[in-house]
Amino acid sequence: xxxxxxxxxxxxxxxxxxxxxxxxxxxxxxxxxxxxxxxxxxxxxxxxxxxxxxxxxxxxxxxxxxxxxxxxxxxxxxxxxxxxxxxxxxxxxxxxxxxxxxxxxxxxxxxxxxxxxxxxxxxxxxxxxxxxxxxxxxxxxxxxxxxxxxxxxxxxxxxxxxxxxxxxxxxxxxxxxxxxxxxxxxxxxxxxxxxxxxxxxxxxxxxxxxxxxxxxxxxxxxxxxxxxxxxxxxxxxxxxxxxxxxxxxxxxxxxxxxxxxxxxxxxxxxxxxxxxxx
Length: 278
Prior knowledge:
By secondary structure, this protein is mainly alpha-helical. The chain is built from 12 helices and 2 strands, in the order ααββαααααααααα. Strands 1-2 form a two-stranded antiparallel sheet. Helix 9 crosses helix 11. The model has no long low-confidence stretch (mean pLDDT 95).
């Protein structure tokens, strides 16, 4: 690997581990056994990728916050209206009672150890009671929210209503999107690499999207890449707030980094002309 400034390279290696950076230069090698790099492979390009990835994670985490708060709110509102404030304890509205009990245990554990004043005050005043959903769900993780929604019985009208409010016709589509976003959230929360990563949980492509989506088709390679799950996040953010800035921030990041190969995220196949991204 070439270095334009060895002193600067030493500075970065003193603050970012070699092993962490390695993931960003893996594809720059022509021989991955003997670690031979392609001509004109510069350390500075690796740092550019690293910084791009960091900025990308920050934007995506903003999107996740928007989606998480909306999902939390819709679960609280629609299920509490139908089944009361303690609906999350009712195993008659779920498909898998074992999964349900695991979620309830996670909720109760998180609430009991939460440091927020409202949680501590409730536990002090009501040590033997469960809080209503609008209190309990303020401490729930995105992963648990996703599991709770997915485990609701399919025939519950509230499950379809929530999917519809997110711009989807089918609740199984929303369940798969939330699972994929939950996976990405865990990656981001641990400051792990998004650039070039394949997704383990692939979202179901919607059959009848209510809002602007992808019309040119997705290649098998794209299905494995972050492009699809990032697109689902942009779609959900648009359904929540049409004036959100997530897409604009992503496009600005791409435009300000023209040398970053965003095709490694799955952004190819005329993506910029897709209705969702135009």
